[in-house]
Design goal:
The chain is 49% helix and 4% strand. The longest helix has 20 residues. The protein has six helices and two strands; from the N terminus they run E-E-H-H-H-H-H-H. By secondary structure, it is mainly alpha-helical. The termini are far apart.
Length: 181
């Protein structure tokens, strides 16, 4: 029996990226975004070393979805939602509250002084967006890079607050290895 080889085409940039500025050339002219620019977009978004492995894995996926949004614009929304799943996971472990909802986790984190009231408000706004997408109320959403990247960065920042560099959540395990950095 002859085995058929299936080949897929190389990814094609999302046509909406053609209207996205990637930088300015030496002569001052505008340069449209290229995939290599997406590496710069997520530069510095490092998973805190003490973050729980489950949250670290989801957060890494969120970052990579942002990078891959060059090929599928809607990945920006998915990236932001995925990053909020990572925050929820990190909060659940940090607060030792496995059965609490995201809403309850945010409130508890603020009550216990783990997060500021301002950060709690920001997370509630993100939670609302995530819930709208997850429950099909805004699955058609599309963000711009200028909107999505700060939202993704906020998730990295929150997990960094929950698990600062001096914390060690590894309990003798190898820390989560980020293969892209």
């Amino acid at each position: 029996m002859m085995e058929l080889e299936q080949r897929f085409p190389w990814p094609v940039p999302d046509p909406r990226m053609r209207i996205t500025v990637g930088g300015v050339n030496d002569d001052g002219s505008v340069r449209m975004i290229e995939y290599s620019d997406m590496h710069r977009v997520v530069e510095g978004m490092e998973v805190p070393p003490g973050a729980p492995e489950a949250a670290a894995s989801v957060l890494t996926t969120a970052r990579e979805l942002m990078r891959m949004s060059f090929y599928r614009w809607e990945f920006m929304v998915v990236s932001v939602c995925w990053s909020l799943f990572a925050v929820e996971t990190a909060l659940r472990e940090r607060l030792s509250a496995p059965r609490k909802t995201f809403d309850q986790l945010i409130k508890l984190a603020v009550e216990e002084g783990v997060l500021s009231g301002d950060m709690g408000d920001r997370l509630h706004a993100g939670r609302t967006i995530r819930n709208q997408v997850a429950h099909g109320k805004s699955t058609h959403s599309a963000y711009t890079i200028g909107l999505a990247v700060p939202m993704l960065q906020a998730s990295f920042d929150v997990i960094g607050l929950l698990y600062p560099p001096e914390s060690d959540n590894s309990a003798g395990q190898e820390p989560f290895a980020d293969i892209h950095r």
